[in-house]
């Protein structure tokens, strides 16, 4: 269990001071930090087909990048390269634990834990991200520089690497194990390993407005909602037929925005859209069918019901009235009396017998938990 020091601030003070505003370096944010995954285990993950990995290196001053899976790293030598894997929290429970201290942020904002291993001189180059990130330094040392969020010229260093031109750093420091950088979107940064080193980036996502709107439109089309035509029975004669007048603009705008006023559709869309995992989930495809009877027999004071790493569970205040929970893009609905039980499933990444016991006395709730276990979304752990 990790405890993170947020510059001696409460989570709310940290959000007010730094979140989406300015970067900060926190020395010894996690005391006595040791890598939750070893470089060898990590390199092993990058051999798997379903895992999103990439190698970045420089050859005669030219940036190079390749996507995994990788079989072998021996040709790379012992400097100037870096191996990065997205969504390591999906595959490694210890790495997933790194998210826990940041659970003061909602599930839908959490992206993943990206891990990198870099040899001396290795890094991905100076760049800007669109997301907030807490970069925790693991074993080894890295030199980090973070610039201001002024205009920065972006340059394509390689087809897979968008860099920024040199920036003057406002943070310029060597990070040691347990040190942590928080970087908001838009601030250029670059980390260069000084020795073999691991770093763990807890990343947070949002969407662009256009992505949200276009996904919402796709959802409405799939649901055959909003198909009624814009009508104008009150039409007046015009003597400027080329003009789309202000009234018409208002009417068309209103027609579009009325779709967003449909809270039932909007919450269904947001629940399913935002609960979708961005990286592959480590779902066990060889699970044996589990029954309600087995659940009752196996779940005891010594057992935890654990949520699969990276699985997103969400609910709404409003949708809670109809007792829905959204898990990995799917909506699960139970009667209103179970809303507190559903809330437990969404708010906790693991649940004890004491927390769930009451809810499991109801066959409907039991059946839902069995469905979620059989889908590979939750599992029992002794
Ligand atoms: C890295 O771990 O090398 C890259 C992390 C980042 O810059 O976002
Ligand atoms: Co970055």
How do you describe this structure in short?
This protein has 382 residues and is an alpha+beta fold. It has helices spanning 11-17, 39-45, 93-96, 209-222, 246-260, 263-274, 292-298, 317-320, 339-347, 353-356, 363-374; strands at 24-26, 53-59, 62-67, 81-85, 110-118, 132-137, 142-147, 154-158, 161-164, 169-175, 180-183, 189-193, 197-204, 304-307, 313-314, 324-327, 330-333, 350-352, 378-381. The chain has two domains: 11-204, Jelly Rolls; 292-381, 50S ribosomal protein L16 arginine hydroxylase, Chain A, Domain 2 (Malonyl-Coenzyme A Acyl Carrier Protein, domain 2, 3-Layer(aba) Sandwich), CATH 3.40.366.
Verbal overview:
Helices cover 25% and strands 25% of the residues. It is an alpha+beta fold. The chain is globular and about 70 Å long. The chain starts with 10 loop residues before the first helix and ends with a strand. The structure holds succinic acid and cobalt (II) ion (CO). The site of succinic acid has 12 residues, from strand 5, strand 6, strand 12 and strand 13.
**Uncertain regions spanning at least 5 consecutive residues:** none
Count of helices?
11
Question: What kind of sheet is the major sheet?
Answer: 8 strands, antiparallel
Number of domains: 2
Ligands bound to this protein structure: succinic acid, cobalt (II) ion
CATH homologous superfamily caption of the largest domain: Cupin
The radius of gyration computed from the alpha-carbon positions, rounded to a whole number of angstroms, is: 24 Å
Order of the strands making up the biggest sheet:
1-11-6-13-5-4-2-3
SSE order, as H and E?
A: HEHEEEHEEEEEEEEEHHHHEEHEEHEHHE
Q: What is the number of strand segments? A: 19
Described by the principal axes of the CA atoms, the overall outline is globular
What percentage of the residues does DSSP assign to strands (E)? 25-35%
Q: What is the CATH class of the largest domain?
A: Mainly Beta
CATH topology of the largest domain: Jelly Rolls
Q: Which CATH architecture of the largest domain is right?
A: Sandwich
Secondary-structure-based class equals alpha+beta
**Helix content estimate:** 10-25%
Q: What is the distance, rounded to the nearest whole angstrom, between the alpha carbons of the first and last residues? A: 17 Å
Overall mean pLDDT stands at 96
